[in-house]
Amino acid sequence: MAKTCSRRQLEIVNKLLLDEMTSRGQMENDAYCQSLALDIAAGNGNLTRVKQLCEPHLNQPLAHNNSVRYGLAIPVVRASNAGHKKVTDYLYYNHYKIALPLVLKKDNDVYWATCLLLDAIFYGFLDIALDIIKHLPSVAVTEHARQRLPIYKFIAVKPDLFRSHCNFGFWRHLIYSCIRVSENPRPNRDNRLFCMTLPQSLLKWLGIKQIYELKDSHCKARSLLQKMSTSLRDIMAKNEIRWKETVYEALLEAVESGNREFFIEIIKCDSQLLWISNPTSGRNLFQLAVEFKKEKIFNLIHGLDDRKVTLLRSYDKGNNNILHIAGRLSTPDQLSKISGAALKMQRESQWFKEVESLVSEREVVQKNEDKKTPRQIFEHYHEPLRKEGEEWMKYTATACSFVAALIATVTFQAIFTVPGGIDGTSGSPLILNDLHFRAFIFTDTLAFFASCISVLIFLSILTSRYSFDDFIVSLPRKMILGQSILFISIASMLVAFITSLSASMRHKPALVYPLKPLASFPSLLFLMLQYPLLKEMISSTYGKRLFYRDTKNWLP
């Protein structure tokens, strides 16, 4: 049925089946029918029907052995696996939470508790995940034979659960820092009062409600990780080889995913984990952070003591030091997050320069087993990207310089063809004292000189050397300046046009009023189309630094 019906049709079939079973009264005496009905209702997220079926057993543990006996998942796991938050909350807090102390007595129950924990983490039901860990801390470090992914490895590849994964602007960062949330698993009265102090529509429009929910989720995720780390610390103290291998794999996954909070918390469990390496390449954790271009992980090296010197000077199996690794091109997945070949080249150069500033002169000139220095590696792998960036810069500069030259030509001609005409005797404009005319003279002159300046800037881009280092600051700075001045020239030209029209039609100004809003449309369109790229270029060149050297010790 699932293969021949659409999802909506399947839901209708399930509902009809459920209604038929209920109307015939089959569920009262038939455990299979009751289990199947509850399974269908929970899987469809039908909270009303779930309550109807579970009402006789309110605040009592459901006999989910029947579900397992008939090859069905227990209802709370069925609901959580489908992502139904309300149904999962109802079943867990009213029927399954009270049975948690008995879970560890049965292997099958441990498996279902682990499934529920994984679903809760995946869908963000972190209040349930925290409650499970609170009552069953050992579940975090329990591997079931039917479990495909250990819980620790699952969290390692979920950096979006934590604060460091979010890049807020100024306004959202300010709101986030001012919000206070409770660390209790379930929202308390104080949390609800926060969202009731202002109208819900205003909270949503300002983004405050979403940021509050996000911070609440971050706090719960952090608390969940700390509780799980406590259990992990205890089991690692027993020196179990199997769990050490699992933790090693999870830590390597965390580096590849850029999960900063997970990385710090696990290393704090055992500082010796800092020295583990990838068994295939022989690269340590910070070399892997450079390989995958995870700056949030790499920045942590500044918070280490003398151990960072050893980590920076180590070599992989190919006799590559960390600067050799930085010289290699990022993966397509990493480069796809950056728009424009020039900005991609800028990001790659920034990484190489940052790593180069941390190593000694010996590592800068050292050769690997292929007899190549880090600089040679960098130039070899980035030459195609440099050429692509050069073409992108030249194409953009050529197009913009053409527009700027056109504006310069038009505004130069307009200044000698003044509106209102010229006095034949004195040669002075007839409307010299008109305010609109004076505004026209000023804006037209501004548009002319701004376009001339932007042409010169774009000309300097076209004649640049396009070396690797030029992409770090020099070329982006010229492009930012050129496009900004070009926007000024476009806006000034449009204002000059409308003021010239107002001066010519000064006796009938009503005819000009409807045209004034149209004058802003081309400049706004230019701003809308170019602003995303211009904003990214300004941010990557002058904004918040990609790397920050926080020397505060995070590892005792």
UniProtKB/TrEMBL annotation:
Which residues span the membrane?
395-416, 436-459, 480-503, 515-534
Does the keyword Transmembrane helix feature in the UniProt annotation? yes
The PGG domain sits at 390-503
Q: Which keywords does the record carry?
A: Membrane, Transmembrane, Transmembrane helix
Q: Which residues form a coiled coil?
A: none
Q: Does the keyword Transferase apply?
A: no
One cellular component term from this protein's GO annotations in UniProt: membrane
UniProt-listed Pfam families: PGG
Which PANTHER family does UniProt cross-reference here?
Answer: ANKYRIN-REPEAT CONTAINING PROTEIN, CASKIN
Q: Spell out the protein name for this chain.
A: PGG domain
Taxonomic classification: Eukaryota, Viridiplantae, Streptophyta, Embryophyta, Tracheophyta
